[in-house]
């Protein structure tokens, strides 16, 4: 059962799911390879993405740096496409990913959300969002959400972004929220919201996720756990609130 109440995805509105990962996290180095119930965190995320490979292109996007070679190797192991590009310029990796693909939307997912609910993408009718540039999920625990960005809006940002801003496109969401005068957002409402967090950004986050997955019954089926099941497990524990990323000191306004 999905977290979204909705319709079905339209075949002609094709999507690319871009999963962003790099090894050099400052708060939790090499978190992509931390063990979660026998899977690396990134491996678990890629495994969960298999539920939408029939309706979307799944692409692992990492940097061209040597330190990310091990990240890149997981693309082949999990049968997903691979894009490598500039470490700081995340937007350039999206440009490479969509360059030769006939897609209308990019679904942006970060590797610190290993329990992203990919299955919910099946329940969105993208034709309902023809005048929308960004789709996000309201009222759902952090670590389960994704956001969808229209290819048209991405190209608009590419045309108007400054070289200084290019180095901060890891924070791509701010280019949408800070420019709401020219970019339209729409949302879908999460079903079964929670004050907890399932993201993986600190060692405290890692300890919490390991605690949730202690049951052997769960360990055997972690890649297929639904949002409802995760919420039920979390309800048995103290809610966990992850540390939020610090916003860099730069303007995200577009001219």
Largest sheet: 7 strands, mixed
Number of domains: 1
Named CATH architecture: Alpha-Beta Complex
Overall CATH class: Alpha Beta
> What name is given to the CATH topology?
Spore Coat Polysaccharide Biosynthesis Protein SpsA, Chain A
Unreliable residue runs: 1-11
What strand line-up does the widest sheet have? Answer: 5-4-1-6-8-7-9
Described by the principal axes of the CA atoms, the overall outline is globular
Q: How much beta, percentage-wise?
A: 15-25%
> End-to-end span in angstroms?
43 Å
Cα radius of gyration in angstroms: 17 Å
CATH 4th-level superfamily: Spore Coat Polysaccharide Biosynthesis Protein SpsA, Chain A
Characterization of the model:
This protein is of the alpha/beta class. The chain has a single domain, classed as Spore Coat Polysaccharide Biosynthesis Protein SpsA, Chain A (Alpha-Beta Complex), CATH 3.90.550. Helices cover 27% and strands 17% of the residues. It contains nine helices and nine strands. The protein has helices at residues 41-48, 69-77, 90-98, 151-160, 163-166, 172-177, 203-212, 216-219, 227-234, and strands spanning 15-20, 35-36, 39-40, 56-63, 81-85, 105-110, 134-138, 147-150, 185-189. It has a seven-stranded mixed sheet with strand order 5-4-1-6-8-7-9. Strands 2-3 form a two-stranded antiparallel ribbon. Helix 2 links the parallel strand 4 (56-63) and strand 5 (81-85). Residues 1-11 have low confidence and may be disordered.
């Amino acid at each position: 059962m999905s977290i979204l109440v909705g319709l079905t995805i339209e075949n002609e509105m094709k999507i690319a799911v871009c999963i962003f990962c790099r090894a050099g996290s400052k708060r939790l180095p090499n978190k992509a390879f931390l063990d979660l119930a026998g899977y690396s965190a990134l491996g678990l995320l890629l495994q969960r993405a298999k539920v939408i490979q029939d309706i979307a292109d799944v692409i692992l996007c990492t940097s061209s740096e040597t330190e990310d070679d091990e990240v890149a190797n997981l693309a082949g192991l999990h049968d997903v496409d691979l894009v490598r590009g500039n470490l700081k310029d995340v937007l350039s990796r999206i440009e490479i990913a969509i360059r030769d693909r006939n897609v209308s939307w990019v679904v942006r997912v970060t590797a610190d959300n290993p329990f992203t609910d990919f299955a919910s993408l099946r329940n969105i009718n993208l034709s309902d969002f023809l005048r929308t540039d960004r789709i996000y999920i309201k009222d759902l625990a952090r670590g389960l959400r994704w956001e969808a960005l229209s290819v048209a809006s991405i190209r608009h940002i590419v045309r108007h972004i400054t070289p200084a801003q290019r180095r901060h496109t890891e924070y791509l969401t701010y280019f949408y929220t800070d420019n709401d005068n020219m970019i339209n957002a729409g949302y879908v409402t999460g079903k079964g919201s929670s004050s907890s967090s399932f993201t993986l950004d600190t060692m405290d986050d890692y300890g919490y996720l390991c605690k949730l997955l202690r049951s052997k019954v769960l360990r055997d089926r972690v890649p297929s756990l639904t949002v409802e099941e995760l919420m039920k497990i979390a309800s048995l524990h103290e809610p966990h609130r992850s540390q939020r990323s610090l916003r860099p000191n730069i303007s995200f306004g577009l001219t």
